């Protein structure tokens, strides 16, 4: 059985995917809270930490523009709107955890979880693509920042 947080990430991914799909389809009734609530109900007994899922969904949505701007130069051959919707949302979740949840989630865990989501829900090449982009993001956006702050003393 999947760990509680792994299942939480699956629900977050489903929520973000459905939300983006409905927004792009110009569904005027789209409400992320309703989508999240519905998705959480399906796993009510399996997910204890629902606040983790909600924080992940709300955090990714709040940072989406910034996350997309950071993803684009790392994957220059793939404009953000041409990346498959599922891969795009997995990248956003992984990058959000790398940049904004590093105090709670080790980088290797964030990347590994994103790769596992890609294996389960993406295409045949998704996991390699996700691993490559998030590995580069870690080296350029996280490690460089950490190393730079150590040398500035």
Task: Describe how the helices and strands are arranged.
Blueprint: H1 4-24, H2 32-42, H3 50-74, H4 85-100, H5 107-121, H6 126-151
Notable traits:
single chain, disordered C terminus, 6 helices, globular, 153 residues
Question: Could you describe the 3D structure shown?
Answer:
- The chain has 153 residues and is mainly alpha-helical.
- It is built from 6 helices and no strands.
Report, as a whole number of angstroms, the end-to-end distance.
46 Å
Rg: 15 Å
Helix count, DSSP H or I runs of 4 or more residues? 6
Order of helix and strand elements from N to C terminus? HHHHHH
**Strand residue content:** under 5%
Largest sheet: none
What are the low-pLDDT stretches, counting only 5+ consecutive residues below 50?
Answer: 149-153
